[in-house]
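Work Package 4 report. The design task specified in the project plan requires that, given a folded chain encoded as structure tokens, an amino acid be chosen for each position. We show below one input record used in the internal validation round.
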């Protein structure tokens, strides 16, 4: 079983990695273009819409995606019956929530600091039922490690900004281009996923089955609320206290870093969760799978975060343009802390869910929120750059929380984790020390040369260590063969 699962994981990781690589080649380009056509205020309006949509989708999904991936079903009939119940629950609830938001959209817009934005919220929230329509099919593809199909879906989605959003932005110079692009992307996903899925929507419903599912998904839903609060509560405060300009700067900085780091996390997180779920009853293989993912991700994401911090001005200029200079400081700090969080905290949540203990993730999130809220409320009164540093650093409290919980349920100790990633950390510190000796310059080409030089220094240090050298060479070899099975 373990060997077959490793092959499934490797094949899935290949397609997921290719998907994210393609996305990261296209999305930064579209961001570069849109950031030069539209203003930070326009992106601030988009943030208000996505903030409402993401919160509503917590209740429409209700954790059913995770249930379908994590649950071991006795046969396909039970799986498909559960899928039907999840589908109709999602869709019906999403339509109700959309209607509620549309009716009260002017009041909601006022609450989130975007007076007059009621129409934008009402229209953009059509994404809620569209996402609900396709989310269950997506869960089945992830359960079956069919990331090849998800590659097709993602590729279609990332073409929407090129075909729809950018032309509309050029013609209208309005935030409506972003809203229409978002709706089109959700519609595209729904059509393709339904078309490609072996399971098709059929009328079947069982309240008994719904109660059984909800006993699990209730805590996943609470967890999703806590994650939303962690991701958007600070944005909400910034929008209320400051302005849509700073809201646009603030959220776009986070998104820009996310476009870079999710090249790795989006390619691995769904697969890690699926793999750990299959190994939840085998502690040793479970632990080994976790460490393999963590080491491989750490080798690439740790220097990436340090590099974002060192070259934040260059990244801001290239990806966003001159009118976004206020974002450079936040991009740097958020990039650095993102690398630390991804390696030491991010994957812990996948362990909790794979073990069928979403309550632990809820506990972790709310403990972190207890530090987050006072930090943002205090520092939002100061200079914006100070707020950005404080907001980035408070994320590190999640590491202490998650490593403590992780040790309690798996006996994976902080010492073992340090031994697993310490080479990458030391190599990244060596790269940073070298970067500080380089002469300061505003020349973009010279700075790009510095990036290449620092990357070379990092990998030169990494190659001095046998285990890391084997992983690098094996990953490189299997990537060019389009088969990374042997990496795992």
């Amino acid at each position: 079983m373990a060997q077959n699962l490793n092959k499934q994981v490797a094949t899935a990781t290949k397609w997921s990695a290719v998907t994210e690589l393609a996305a990261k080649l296209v999305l930064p380009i579209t961001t570069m273009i849109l950031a030069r056509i539209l203003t930070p205020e326009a992106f601030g309006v988009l943030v208000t819409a996505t903030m409402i949509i993401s919160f509503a989708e917590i209740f429409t999904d209700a954790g059913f995606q995770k249930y379908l991936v994590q649950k071991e079903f006795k046969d396909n009939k039970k799986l498909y019956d559960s899928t039907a119940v999840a589908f109709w629950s999602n869709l019906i609830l999403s339509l109700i929530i959309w209607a509620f938001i549309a009716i009260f959209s002017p009041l909601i817009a006022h609450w989130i600091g975007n007076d007059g934005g009621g129409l934008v919220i009402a229209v953009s929230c059509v994404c809620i039922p569209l996402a609900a329509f396709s989310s269950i099919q997506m869960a089945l593809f992830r359960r079956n490690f069919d990331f090849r199909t998800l590659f097709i879906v993602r590729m279609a989605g990332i073409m929407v900004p090129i075909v729809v959003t950018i032309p509309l932005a050029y013609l209208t110079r309005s935030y409506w281009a972003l809203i229409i692009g978002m709706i089109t992307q959700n519609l595209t996903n729904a059509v393709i996923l339904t078309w490609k899925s072996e399971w098709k929507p059929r009328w079947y419903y069982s309240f008994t089955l719904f109660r059984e599912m909800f006993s699990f998904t209730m805590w996943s839903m609470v967890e999703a609320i806590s994650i939303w609060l962690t991701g958007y509560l600070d944005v909400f405060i910034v929008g209320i206290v400051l302005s849509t300009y700073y809201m646009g700067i603030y959220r776009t900085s986070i998104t820009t870093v996310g476009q870079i780091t999710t090249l790795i996390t989006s390619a691995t997180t769904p697969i890690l969760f699926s793999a750990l779920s299959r190994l939840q009853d085998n502690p040793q293989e479970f632990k080994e799978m976790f460490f393999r993912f963590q080491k491989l991700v750490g080798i690439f994401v740790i220097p990436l975060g340090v590099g974002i911090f060192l070259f934040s001005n260059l990244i801001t200029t290239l990806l966003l343009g001159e009118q976004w200079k206020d974002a450079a400081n936040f991009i740097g700090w958020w990039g650095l802390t993102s690398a630390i969080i991804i390696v030491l905290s991010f994957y812990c949540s996948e362990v909790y869910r794979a073990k069928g203990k979403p309550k632990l993730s809820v506990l972790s999130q709310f403990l972190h929120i207890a530090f987050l809220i006072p930090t943002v409320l205090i520092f939002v009164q100061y200079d914006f750059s100070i707020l950005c540093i404080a907001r980035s650093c408070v994320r590190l409290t999640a590491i202490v929380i998650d490593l403590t919980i992780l040790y309690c349920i798996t006996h994976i100790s902080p010492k073992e984790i340090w031994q697993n990633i310490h080479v990458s950390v030391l190599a990244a510190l060596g790269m940073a020390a070298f970067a500080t000796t380089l002469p300061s310059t505003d020349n973009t080409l010279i700075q790009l040369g510095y990036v290449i030089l620092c990357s070379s220094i990092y990998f030169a240090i990494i190659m001095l260590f046998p285990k890391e050298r084997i992983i690098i060479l094996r990953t490189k070899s299997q990537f060019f063969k389009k088969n990374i099975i042997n990496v795992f």
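The chain has two domains: 38-205, 218-488. Validation will be extended to a larger panel in the next phase.
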